[in-house]
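Why does residue order matter? Because the sequence determines the fold. Keep that principle in mind as you read this record.
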Amino acid sequence: MSTVPEAISPAEAQKRRVGLNRILHAAGFSLAGLRAGWGETAFRQEAIASFVLLPAAFWIGRTWVEVALLAGSVLIVMIIELLNTGIETAIDRIGPEWHDLSKRAKDMGSAAVLLSVVLATGIWIAALIEKFGA
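Structure:
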């Protein structure tokens, strides 16, 4: 008896990969996500700021904990911006018409970005005061 091979979806194909092959493919998807994020103005601005802020974290931080807090706060903003963009993209995929739940989801994603920026700003201000304050 011959059987017709089942069509494998791209998602299923990724789940069947193992070891280094899976890691390499996942890294490719992650890089594609970063390229897609680069197309968003807010993420691009945050990424450009990180080119200055990440090296500055090593200069301002006195201990590895301080460096980790400074650098981590910058990366958290970028991570949350990518998640927010993912939420917005998924909502837009559903449809362009206005819906209260769509607005709520987008607003909550935006609020998450705002809170991460407030957190990062607070950490950086505290570190700058500690290093250069009276």
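The longest helix spans residues 100-132.
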